[in-house]
């Protein structure tokens, strides 16, 4: 862990507001990107990030610099906060697959040039269950076993949700003329786009 992060953590542990402000200024943009991948709207993402920062400050004493980087610890808090927020707002009353099938019809078409912002918007339009699994697996690197525990679903459901998410993204991106120039090669390979 770098010296700046060590100083930030120790400053936050002392309750020094300038270090708390430095932590937010240093990591807010990166963590907002994580939050946006899980939220439906910009406003939801802001709420999730605010809740996550509260948790980060309340539990900064639990961060162990020997176990990993500060960013990854905070990223995990943002992800878990976003998923808890979603579960609270949308308790499961029906099968994810059935709900996602209904929502799939609402996905908007991609227009104009695909940039990072556009890709985030496309991902945000994937039905919730698919989007959560896609983000956890492809973007954040969780295994299907970990995803099944986090989302309280079976591993096979996690795998099928990922397959459906990739299919939806692949279909949307193939409609786009110059997608190959704008999408990172790793995402292109992950989605199986030639």
What does this structure look like?
By secondary structure, the protein is mainly α. Helix content is 72%, strand content 0%. The chain is built from eleven helices and no strands. It has helices at 3-13, 17-38, 42-58, 70-89, 96-104, 116-125, 128-139, 144-151, 155-174, 179-182, 185-191. The model is unreliable at 93-114 and 177-186 (pLDDT under 50).
Number of domains: 2
Percentage of residues in helical conformation:
over 70%
Low-confidence stretches: 93-114, 177-186
**Can you identify the CATH class of the largest domain?**
Mainly Alpha
Structural category is mainly alpha
Number of distinct helices: 11
The radius of gyration over CA amounts to 18 Å
Strand element count: 0
Distance between the termini: 39 Å
Give average pLDDT, whole number.
80
**Tell me about the biggest sheet?**
none
Assign an overall shape. elongated
CATH topology of the largest domain: Arc Repressor Mutant, subunit A
CATH architecture of the largest domain: Orthogonal Bundle
What is the beta-strand fraction?
A: under 5%
Order of helices and strands: HHHHHHHHHHH
Describe the secondary structure blueprint for this structure.
Layout: H1 3-13, H2 17-38, H3 42-58, H4 70-89, H5 96-104, H6 116-125, H7 128-139, H8 144-151, H9 155-174, H10 179-182, H11 185-191
Structure at a glance:
This protein has 194 residues and is mainly α. 72% of the residues lie in helices and 0% in strands.
Write a concise keyword list for the protein shown above.
Rna Polymerase Sigma Factor, Chain: A, mainly alpha, 194 residues, elongated, Arc Repressor Mutant, subunit A, 2 domains
């Amino acid at each position: 862990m770098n010296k700046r992060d060590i100083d930030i953590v120790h400053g936050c542990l002392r309750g020094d507001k300038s270090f708390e402000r430095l932590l937010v200024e240093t990591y807010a943009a990166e963590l907002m990107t994580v939050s946006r991948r899980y939220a439906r709207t910009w406003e939801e993402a802001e709420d999730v990030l605010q809740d996550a920062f509260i948790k980060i400050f309340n539990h900064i004493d639990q961060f162990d610099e020997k176990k990993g980087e500060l960013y990854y610890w905070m990223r995990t808090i943002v992800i878990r906060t976003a998923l808890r927020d979603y579960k609270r707002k949308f308790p499961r009353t029906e099968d994810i697959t059935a709900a996602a099938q209904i929502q799939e019809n609402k996905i908007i078409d991609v227009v104009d040039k695909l940039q990072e912002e556009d890709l985030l918007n496309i991902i945000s339009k994937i039905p919730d269950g698919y989007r959560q699994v896609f983000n956890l697996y492809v973007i954040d690197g969780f295994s299907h076993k970990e995803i099944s525990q986090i989302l309280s679903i079976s591993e096979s459901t996690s795998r099928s949700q990922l397959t459906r998410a990739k299919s939806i993204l692949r279909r949307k991106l193939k409609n786009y003329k110059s997608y190959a120039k704008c999408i990172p090669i790793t995402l292109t390979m992950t989605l199986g786009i030639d």
